[in-house]
Amino acid sequence: MATQTETKNNSFVLSGVKNIVYEDRPIPELKEPYDVLLQVNFTGICGSDVHYWQHGGIGEFKVKDPMVLGHESSGTVLETGSSVKSLKKGDRVAMEPGIPCRRCIRCKEGYYNLCSDMRFAATPPYDGTLAKYYILPEDFCYKLPEHISLEEGALLEPLAVGVHITRQSKLKHGDSIVIFGAGPVGILCAAVAKSLGASKIISVDINQDRLDFVKKFTAPICSTYVSQKISAQENAANIIRENDLGDGADVAIDASGVEPSIQAAIHVLRRGGSYVQGGMGRDECTFPIMAACIKELQISGSFRYSQGDYATALNLVANGSVDVKQVISRKVKFEEALQAFEDIKDGKGIKVLIAGPE
Amino acid sequence: MSEQNQSFILRAIKDVAIGNISKPQITDPHDIIVQIGQTGICGSDVHYWQRGRIGDFVLNSPIVLGHESAGVVTEVGSSVKNLKIGDKVAIEPGVPCRHYTVFAATPPHNGTLSKFYKTASDYCYKLPDHLTLEDGALCEPVAVAVQICKVGNVKAGQTIVVFGCGPIGLLVQSVAKSYAAKKVIGIDLSQSRLDLASSVLNSADGVFMPPPMPKKEDGTSHTTDEESEHSAKVAQLIKDKFDLGQGPEVVIDATGAQSCIQTGVHLCKKGGTYVQAGMGRENVVFPITVACIRDLTIRGSIRYTAGVYPQAVDLVACGKVQPQKLITHRYKFEEAEQAFETVRRGGEDVLKVMIEGVQ
């Protein structure tokens, strides 16, 4: 592997299943008048990056050619296209890594996350952000206020996911919410729910350390529950009883993707409650469809983020509502990135940030 | 040397002329070039001509007028998939650069009264064979009407009252009927326009001409309070005449006139919706307490949003809305100034005036 001083655009590339190499890729060039050239400063690792690494694909997305990983990044502006007005060299930004076509009906409605021609970093065949340089259009860069660090900027991506999931649930001030899964997304959903004025937040997981973390992170509003190997209805009944949820919770979010959690979430909801599938697991599961029917539940999916979510995430960090620094378990140098991936794969830490190449 | 592109240009207030601008070239792979076939005139075109501004939009340099157009595709960019050369299209004239919006014939952007017009392919909608270019051009005001009904949340089974039987009012009535509104009432001061609504377009189930305020014995003009009182009375007359009970679900003003705005708000039932579509004076005396006490939803409506234009094209294509019945005058391109003058002088007999494309 070439040393740092010799490479121009050192990149962390998935070249095959479980096979990572460092490559010196060409420095990208500004093409459109609204393009911005960024130097990537920090990148967080997402479960999807790990999944591509271990399995070579997620659902229909299959890695065919070598692909740069990573998409949760912050960077510094180096060059701007001729039409760029709001950014200049030296500005520090959070990077929203998915560029929609801007022409289809979903884009025009504001649901650009549902664009069929979406070019998303580190979703095949598009390269991700674990490189020295990256190009994004101006409106997908969010300038960080002075008091927000580049490390925090890299957390805006998963926070925007949490914002979107919570928005899909239509959680409002005073509602009770149960969140299944206390990984980064579940933790951040809890933080968003707190900022929205939820009256009760219950975090559910099998991992006591993660539950302890989320309870502290969203204190004093959050209580926790350890899932047991009993039926989903029994787990749900326990959660309702232990937290005085009356007919059931107003909102339930699954941020785990596992079947017993999905089932328990449906059973923990009150009549007329709202459920959001945020977690990703097996394509199909056994689903309590009759409970959903009889209780007249509102059931939504949630995918990435759309109109306004990134800006909301930035506001939540900028005004101190969500202290994302606490979610950062450790930072590693670019050369140590693979070690960070191993840690995340083994469930060590919550968010590990990889510094950009120097 | 650029090819001729004859255009109808607003050079300064009240100063229009036919001139030549450069023929547009495809610069973006998603662009298309359309040879304009028909253009309808809108009140806003006349307003820029006569006053040089509408609100914040000020004429500072010459612009081509017109924005209600249809034409035939003459060139397509390399990435265009939805259209080919020779297709007849209705043109949605407001293309956001997708970072902020550029609307045709709103200073400083050129309108469509040229021989050739360049626009983005996803803002052009192919017309089925049985529609003419006049139909296509009129999809623009139909889209305005569809947007008004969307903003007002007009639904099947509702009662809708529309103030104004000009082109927009009539089209709003037609669109509401196409949504299976239970009852659509049209209001106007002109008997011939009311007849259009009730008999020609069949856009209204009932029509009404509000009575004028009785002159005062001492010959003085009415006070603001007296006008407001009269508006409330007229609202009650409308409710009684059409058995509207507590009131209609949706009231739409397509006049911009203060008396209609007041009457419209008074007409709303509790929890009802009022939509301001008509443009008149910037400030009016408004029954704000009625709005408060009756928990009204009051919304403005402007142009159109995602999905609306294609819906308008569909409504015209399937015959549910027939905007060609609104055409009262037709002019050749060289007569464009006369066409504008016809709209400017107005009158009961002037509804939709069309200008043919450069031959």
TrEMBL record, chain A:
A GO biological process this protein is involved in? Answer: L-arabinose catabolic process to D-xylulose 5-phosphate
The cofactor required is: Zn(2+)
Q: Which residues form a coiled coil?
A: none
Q: Which domain of life is it from?
A: Eukaryota
Q: In which pathway does it act?
A: Carbohydrate degradation; L-arabinose degradation via L-arabinitol; D-xylulose 5-phosphate from L-arabinose (fungal route): step 4/5
Which residue intervals define the domain Enoyl reductase (ER) in the entry? 16-354
Show the InterPro entries listed in the entry.
Answer: ADH-like_C, ADH-like_N, ADH_Zn_CS, ER, GroES-like_sf, NAD(P)-bd_dom_sf, SDH-like
> Keywords on this record?
Carbohydrate metabolism, Metal-binding, NAD, Oxidoreductase, Xylose metabolism, Zinc
Catalytic reaction annotation: xylitol + NAD(+) = D-xylulose + NADH + H(+)
Q: How is the cofactor bound?
A: Binds 1 or 2 Zn(2+) ions per subunit.
| Single GO MF descriptor | L-iditol 2-dehydrogenase (NAD+) activity
Recorded hits in SUPFAM superfamilies, A to Z, give: GroES-like, NAD(P)-binding Rossmann-fold domains
Q: What is its EC number?
A: 1.1.1.9
Q: Which family does it belong to?
A: Belongs to the zinc-containing alcohol dehydrogenase family.
Query: What biological function has been recorded for the protein in this entry?
Result: Xylitol dehydrogenase which catalyzes the conversion of xylitol to D-xylulose. Xylose is a major component of hemicelluloses such as xylan. Most fungi utilize D-xylose via three enzymatic reactions, xylose reductase (XR), xylitol dehydrogenase (XDH), and xylulokinase, to form xylulose 5-phosphate, which enters pentose phosphate pathway.
Q: Which PANTHER family match?
A: SORBITOL DEHYDROGENASE
Recorded protein name is: D-xylulose reductase
UniProtKB/TrEMBL annotation, chain B:
InterPro entries linked: ADH-like_C (IPR013149), ADH-like_N (IPR013154), ADH_Zn_CS (IPR002328), ER (IPR020843), GroES-like_sf (IPR011032), NAD(P)-bd_dom_sf (IPR036291), SDH-like (IPR045306)
Supply the alphabetized keyword list. Carbohydrate metabolism, Metal-binding, NAD, Oxidoreductase, Xylose metabolism, Zinc
Q: Cross-referenced SUPFAM superfamilies, in alphabetical order? A: GroES-like, NAD(P)-binding Rossmann-fold domains
Involved pathway(s): Carbohydrate degradation; L-arabinose degradation via L-arabinitol; D-xylulose 5-phosphate from L-arabinose (fungal route): step 4/5
**Cofactor: record remark:** Binds 1 or 2 Zn(2+) ions per subunit.
Q: Which cofactor does it need?
A: Zn(2+)
Which ranges carry the Enoyl reductase (ER) domain?
11-351
Q: What reactions does this protein catalyze?
A: xylitol + NAD(+) = D-xylulose + NADH + H(+)
| SMART domains noted in UniProt | PKS_ER (SM00829)
Enzyme nomenclature, EC number: 1.1.1.9
A Gene Ontology biological process term:
D-xylose metabolic process
GO MF terms listed in the record are: D-xylulose reductase activity; L-iditol 2-dehydrogenase (NAD+) activity; zinc ion binding
Keyword Metal-binding listed:
yes
Which superkingdom heads the taxonomic lineage of this protein's source?
Eukaryota
Q: What residue spans carry the Basic and acidic residues bias annotation?
A: 214-230
Region span, Disordered:
208-230
Q: What functional role does this protein have? A: Xylitol dehydrogenase which catalyzes the conversion of xylitol to D-xylulose. Xylose is a major component of hemicelluloses such as xylan. Most fungi utilize D-xylose via three enzymatic reactions, xylose reductase (XR), xylitol dehydrogenase (XDH), and xylulokinase, to form xylulose 5-phosphate, which enters pentose phosphate pathway.
- What does the similarity note say? Belongs to the zinc-containing alcohol dehydrogenase family.
Task: Please identify the protein, giving its name as recorded.
Answer: D-xylulose reductase
